[in-house]
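Q: Joint fold for the lines below.
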Amino acid sequence: MEAREIMLYSYEHCEGFLQKGLEGLTQKEAAWQYNEECNSIAWILWHFTRGEDNRVNALILHEREVFEKEGWQEKLGIPVPLSDRGAGNTLEQVKAWHKHVPKLELLKAYHNSVYKKTVDYIKSATPEKLSEVTDPGSNLPTAGLILARRLGENAMHIGHICFLRGIQRGFNK
Amino acid sequence: MEAKEVLLRSLEQSRGYQTGALDGLTQEEAAWSPCAECNSIAFILWHVTRVEDFFVNRVIQHQPEVYESEGWQQKLGTPVKGTGYEYTAEQLQAWTVPELGIIRGYADSVRQKTLDFIGTVNIEKLSEVPRPDRSSDSVGAILTRITTEIALHVGQIAYLRGVQRGLGK
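A: Joint structure:
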């Protein structure tokens, strides 16, 4: 069993939970915040997809992010720079983001585009490719370490989304 | 990069976030949930540990769960059977919340055994099917699923801390 099999299975398993978490959600449910210091489903989906897009496409593959290449900045209309992917956002930044919540269908479409690219990458990720140093000098210098870390971040955020659906809809709805 | 390194890194990563989310929590915060049908931090931690214990010890290694062999069921006072999986709302509400410190003790013990086990695992072992009469899942597939679901649940624990304490506290 290779590392890429474990990673692909983990990634697809998480995607299953994400799709269940998002299924049938209204725009209102996607934008809902438990309180003003809490992230909404929409914000979380944007944030972790931005992170994945950056890590897989820019950092590992040294290509332009899907966000930029496919014009998602314009389509989503979020007024933050490309470099702001939500990490370390202050309360003011979270509040400002929630003034213009993109349509859930557009966020899902962006996510799906990034997902397809990441799946293709993981399938191609031989042990040699995963050992390639793509971010020298960092504490996660190889493609494998960056990807593994990313998968864990995604999983935790997808857990948030599922929980937020549950708070709003109740048990198993 | 070897397959088992992916598993070990996943566990290390989620454990780091888990520790950060749990450190300093009061019992009240651990037991709190945002709605009657929602899981608390305590429940999620217990559930995820029960699942890890069940799969790593009983399913994969065909040995008693730590829950039983180290007397954690009595120490926790939680149900003898089950892992919390697919609990109904009624079962959730009837679940008695143990002390957070005891749940963490159980989690530490299970995790140590899991890490010891994964340390021994080679490529052949990952492909073995531990219960062919019940499922075609290999050891590798089972471990991937549980490490992924652990991460999902740890995310929820961290979120619940944030809901109660506010941003970054």
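Q: Anything notable?
A: The first helix of chain A runs from residue 3 to 22. Chain A has one domain: 3-7+33-169.
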